[in-house]
Amino acid sequence: MRKARAKKRPLLPDPKFNDTLVTRFVNNLMLDGKKSIAFNIFYDAIDIVSEKTEGNGLETWKEALNNVMPHVEVRSRRVGGANFQIPMQVRPDRKVTLGMKWMILATRKRNERSMAQKLAAEILAASKEEGAAVKKRTEVHRMAEANKAFSHFRF
Question: How far apart are CA 20 and CA 5, in angstroms?
């Protein structure tokens, strides 16, 4: 690397819940710079979740996000001409990022009518430890478990 690492830019909290985690999620959800549409989709999804659970939609979303976040992942490392998949702990910041990305990808692949309904359904599924995003996390954990033998190559 020739230059210094890019500095983390501070995020403004979202207008409704006053939470920076929500803003971060909406930034990942946003397409073509249309942030207001992304916020509307997120808020509508949270409203749908609130109606279906008769509880706090934001808390359900945070619980779902926690269920999707991975604890370990495999990273490729070249040792003596061979590539090994080495299990490593995931940094807290990366945990959140991966969880959000997996949740949004799983949401986009669902079959409901609107994006808000898709997101609400994925949030509800993830909060119950079900759904495609949780399956992805389980897959990653299984890969790490299978490659535990190479953990001594850790750097």
Answer: 22
Instruction: Say whether 8 sits in a helix, a strand or coil.
Output: coil
pLDDT digits (tens, 9 = 90+) for 55-98: 899 999 999 999 999 999 998 888 888 888 889 999 999 999 99
Question: What are 7-35's pLDDT values in tens digits?
Answer: 989 999 999 999 999 999 999 999 999 99
Closest-CA residue to 118 (of 59, 41, 58):
41
| Tally of residues, the chain | 155
Please classify residue 87 by burial: count the beta carbons closer than 10 Å to its beta carbon, then call 0-12 exposed, 13-18 middle and 19+ buried: buried
Instruction: Show the tokens assigned to 109.
Output: 């692949």
Residue 133 · residue 126 · CB < 8 Å: yes
pTM check: above 0.85: yes
Per-domain residue ranges of the chain: 60-155
Helix, coil or strand: residue 90: coil
Question: Between 3.40.50.300, 1.10.455.10, 3.90.79.10, 3.90.180.10, what CATH number should domain 60-155 receive?
Answer: 1.10.455.10
Taking alpha carbons only, the member of 69, 70, 50 closest to residue 59 is 50
